[in-house]
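REQUEST ID: PR-0412
SUBMITTED BY: lab tech R.K.
PRIORITY: routine
TASK: structure prediction, single protein chain
INPUT:
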Amino acid sequence: MKKWMLSAIVYLGIVIVGYFTYEAIFMEDKSVDTHGTSVDETEEKSENHTSHSSAENAHEHGEQANSESAVNVTVKEENKTIVLNLEDHSGNPVTDLEINHEKRLHLIVVDDHLDQYFHLHPEETAPGQFEIASPLEEGTYKAFVDIKPKNLDYEVQPIPVTVGKPNTDDHSHGSLEVDQQLEKTIDGNKVTMSTTPLFVDEPVTLTFDVHGAKLEPYLGALGHVVILDELGEEYLHVHPLEEENPVFETQFSQPGIYKIWAEFQENGKVTVYPFVVEVK
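STATUS: complete
OUTPUT:
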């Protein structure tokens, strides 16, 4: 009897010891596995966040690098003359400019409401200085100096120009109204514009039907297109894709309302056709 009871106690002890040993081992394994998965997810999120932030910083840095200009440009109107000065960061005149569509410098001027548009070509009167007779009336304008300096970074930026002493109370920008029909008739000449879908960051083709008009080369091309956003900040100067057809291609980086000026020459006269579109 005692022998049987002793055997039972020993057996019970073995079972109890075995149970606690099993519990300790397997619960530890489960704890380690769950914690490891959590660490992996945290690391993955951290790595993704770091990578995303680095990409954003690189993108922002790239934009800043692209917008850095090695040329300082000033534009002013005085005594009915528009005067431009081009200097590098050391104050030296910038004179080495590439010929771009038959001209060293294209000057685009618009008023604050984008009602008036001028495409001018000042001539160099001194190293780094260009002048032209001013067609501007009293008011506030934005000038865009389109040049290609050799071996210097440059990006066209809007430059404010004030002529006379305009009423500053009327300085607000009016909203542009999108054209419901992309057809314009000016001085008896009709031009119709058609576009591919106007979406951001996608190539957009602008095709102009001049309704049988005999277009002439103007500044080395069959036409020119200048585009500004509603605030007059984003500048695009576009030239034809083909030599014999007024077809242009461009791309918009931001959604919004844009004004398009298409310039065509016929019988020695250049006519400008304005259009207003919305990019989504």
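NOTES: Residues 71-165 form a domain with the Immunoglobulin-like fold (CATH 2.60.40.10).
REVIEWED BY: pending
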